[in-house]
Amino acid sequence: MEISDEVKVSLVTAVCVLALAIISKNILQVELDFITQYGPVWLFITYIITRGKEKSSGKPLIWSATIIIVTIAILFLYSF
């Protein structure tokens, strides 16, 4: 049984949203606004919309890495 690409990217998105919420609230002690709090979700929605348009835009590894990098960038920007 193989997991589909959409499920893989959605699991990465879920982990990133949870990590973003936990780290921002408990470690950084900042409150994120609506747009940045759901940053990984916005990228996942973009992945779902564009996955069938071009061959290069549908690669789940690239989208998963992008979601992780954006999550780290949000945490980095709010740490100051």
From TrEMBL:
The chain crosses the membrane at residues 7-28, 34-49, 61-79. Residues 2-79 form the DUF8049 domain. The keyword Iron does not apply. Keywords: Membrane, Transmembrane, Transmembrane helix. InterPro entries: DUF8049. It holds the Pfam family DUF8049. This is DUF8049 domain-containing protein. It comes from candidate division MSBL1 archaeon SCGC-AAA259I07. The lineage of its organism: Archaea, Methanobacteriati, Methanobacteriota, candidate division MSBL1.
